């Protein structure tokens, strides 16, 4: 009995408390209270999640921005390289155009499209042929001087034998002394000046030009300069090396002229 009375008393007290709360605050809604509690918990979870993931999101955005900026930088660098390449090409073409204006024997300008696969052969393939009035044994020059001669011709292409080729030779003379000789290719960067008498005075730096006496090359084309004179050599002729004015490893276009 005492327990029942105690429970009854507690129930009465709880009922009076609820009625008093409702009279002051209105009706109590348990579901609304639970919903508010869940919303608060969801807000706390979102806040914690944002605080954890925000640094990673910022890192991802920075990485994406870096990728975009790198792509733009690479594009600008490519455009800059293309611009400089176009400037160099225009410079070379202007030089060829100047040759056309001053060379009465000018035939055409040709672009080098390939090199011979043979290591010992210094030949180029040009994009001009019979169709462009190119003929065998015509002379190829740049604004620096002699480059070589046409060794073979087809309808649309031709082969350029460089002056450094071992099969190349041209009649020349020393510009100052007027002594005549023959320039022959060695297969390397330098050529050899042959048939200069041992007692002929030749010094490093002497200019060599075509003589025109071989019935192939026009007279007066700059060939190169003397880079070495072997004064200790024996025999009838000096050993003389000539460095061509035209660096055959760098030319991209040539002007073709006739005799």
Which labels suit this protein?
Thrombin, subunit H; 27% strand; elongated; 12 strands; six-stranded antiparallel barrel; 2 helices; alpha+beta; six-stranded antiparallel β-barrel; 259 residues; 3 domains
Architecture overview:
With 259 residues, this protein is α+β, with helices and mostly antiparallel strands. The protein folds into three domains: 46-102; 105-162, Beta Barrel (Thrombin, subunit H), CATH 2.40.10.340; 169-246, Rod shape-determining protein MreC, domain 2 (Thrombin, subunit H, Beta Barrel). It has two helices and twelve strands; from the N terminus they run ααββββββββββββ. The strands form two sheets. The chain has a six-stranded antiparallel beta barrel. A six-stranded antiparallel β-barrel has the order 6-7-8-11-10-9. The model has no long low-confidence stretch (mean pLDDT 80).
What general outline do the C-alpha atoms trace?
Answer: elongated
CATH topology of the largest domain: Thrombin, subunit H
CATH class membership of the largest domain: Mainly Beta
Instruction: Give the helix proportion (percent range).
Output: 25-40%
Mean pLDDT: 80
Question: What are the segments in which pLDDT stays under 50 over at least 5 consecutive residues?
Answer: none
Order of helices and strands: HHEEEEEEEEEEEE
Query: Going across the major beta sheet, what is the strand order?
Result: 1-2-5-4-3-12
């Amino acid at each position: 009995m005492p327990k029942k009375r105690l429970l009854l008393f507690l129930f009465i007290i709880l009922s009076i408390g609820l009625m008093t709360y409702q009279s002051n605050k209105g009706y109590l809604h348990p579901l609304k209270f639970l919903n508010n509690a869940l919303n608060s918990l969801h807000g706390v979870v979102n806040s914690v999640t944002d605080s954890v993931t925000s640094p990673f999101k910022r890192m991802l955005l920075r990485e994406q921005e870096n990728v975009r900026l790198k792509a733009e930088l690479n594009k600008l660098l490519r455009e800059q390289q293309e611009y400089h390449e176009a400037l160099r090409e225009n410079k070379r073409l202007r030089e060829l155009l100047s040759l056309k204006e001053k060379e009465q024997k000018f035939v055409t300008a040709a672009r080098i499209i390939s090199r011979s696969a043979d290591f010992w052969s210094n030949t180029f393939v040009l994009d001009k042929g019979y169709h462009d009035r190119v003929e065998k044994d015509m002379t190829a020059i740049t604004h620096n001087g002699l480059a070589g001669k046409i060794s073979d011709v087809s309808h649309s292409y031709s082969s350029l034998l460089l002056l450094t080729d071992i099969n190349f030779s041209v009649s020349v003379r020393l510009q100052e002394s007027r002594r005549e000789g023959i320039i022959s290719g060695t297969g390397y960067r330098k050529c050899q000046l042959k048939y200069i008498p041992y007692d002929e005075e030749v010094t490093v730096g002497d200019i060599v030009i075509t003589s025109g006496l071989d019935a192939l090359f026009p007279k007066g084309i700059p060939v190169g300069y003397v880079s070495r004179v072997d004064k200790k050599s024996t025999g009838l002729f000096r050993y003389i090396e000539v460095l061509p004015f035209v660096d055959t490893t760098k030319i991209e276009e040539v002007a073709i002229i006739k005799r």
